[in-house]
């Protein structure tokens, strides 16, 4: 069952959308704390985000950028500000689509289903990334290699996802710390090193030795 995170401060609109999506067997979470949207996103781990533009504290563009720092989850903007400049800005910020208010709920449903199909290859189960025989599932928080499987913590899952999504490029320490910061309250270089070390040990247990490479003074990559 797909999880959808709905960022909409109009409670009537939010409930209407949530009821429609729930009726189609989606699990929907509406934002509770508009000052901590990134924290709620990381905790819920949604498959798709519906984002309004005008929000308390910070606008949807800001939160789109924050989410894009740690995830490539599909994101659809919902807004009554449907001028071309807003549509262009939303797409440039990392949104996958823009739906102008008012909209027909059946159109919204169709766009949500289409975005999920594109993002998850019609699998309907898990988001998988493969590299040199290692199969990573961000939904199951696991890595499988040659028939052996290891479970990952939330931090380890986030690091693996960022490293694999950026392969073969080197991921900077700052980028990885930002990804971990989304899971924890504060992360410094020492905490990053500890998390990387633990992840490497887990991968070694299933035969993935030296899977994560250190590029001295730059960051990390996968081989």
Instruction: Look at the helices and sheets and give the structural class.
Output: alpha/beta
Output the strand order for the largest sheet.
Answer: 2-1-3-4-5
Percent of residues in helices: 40-55%
Mean pLDDT across the residues is 84
Radius of gyration: 18 Å
The termini sit apart by 33 Å
Q: N-to-C SSE series?
A: EHEHEHEHEHEEEEHEHHEE
Low-confidence stretches: 122-126
Main sheet record: 5 strands, parallel
List the helices and strands and how they pair.
Layout (H helix, E strand, L loop, with lengths): L2 E5 L3 H13 L3 E4 L6 H8 L3 E5 L7 H9 L6 E5 L4 H10 L3 E4 L4 H16 L7 E4 L2 E4 L4 E4 L2 E4 L2 H12 L5 E2 H9 L7 H17 L6 E4 L3 E4 L1
Parallel strand pairs: 1-2, 1-3, 3-4, 4-5
Antiparallel strand pairs: 6-7, 7-8, 8-9, 10-12, 11-12
Task: Give the gist of this structure.
Helices cover 42% and strands 22% of the residues. It is α/β, with parallel strands linked by helices.
């Amino acid at each position: 069952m797909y999880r959808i995170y709905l960022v909409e401060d109009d409670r009537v609109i939010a409930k209407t959308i949530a009821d429609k999506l729930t009726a189609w067997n989606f699990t929907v979470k509406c934002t509770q704390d508009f000052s901590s949207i990134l924290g709620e996103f990381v905790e819920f781990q949604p498959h798709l985000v519906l984002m309004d533009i005008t929000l308390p504290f910070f606008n949807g563009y800001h939160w789109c950028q924050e989410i894009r720092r740690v995830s490539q989850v599909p994101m659809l903007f919902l807004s009554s500000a449907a001028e071309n400049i807003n549509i262009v800005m939303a797409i440039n910020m990392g949104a996958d689509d823009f739906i102008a208010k008012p909209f027909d709920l059946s159109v919204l449903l169709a766009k949500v289903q289409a975005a999920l199909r594109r993002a998850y290859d019609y699998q309907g189960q898990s988001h998988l990334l493969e590299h040199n025989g290692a199969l990573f599932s961000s939904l199951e928080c696991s890595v499988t290699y040659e028939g052996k499987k290891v479970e990952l913590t939330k931090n380890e899952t986030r690091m693996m996802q960022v490293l694999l999504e950026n392969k073969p490029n080197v991921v900077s320490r700052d980028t990885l710390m930002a990804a971990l910061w989304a899971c924890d309250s504060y992360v410094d270089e020492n905490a990053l090193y500890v998390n990387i070390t633990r992840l490497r040990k887990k991968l070694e247990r299933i035969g993935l030795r030296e899977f994560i490479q250190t590029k001295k003074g730059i960051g990390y990559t996968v081989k």
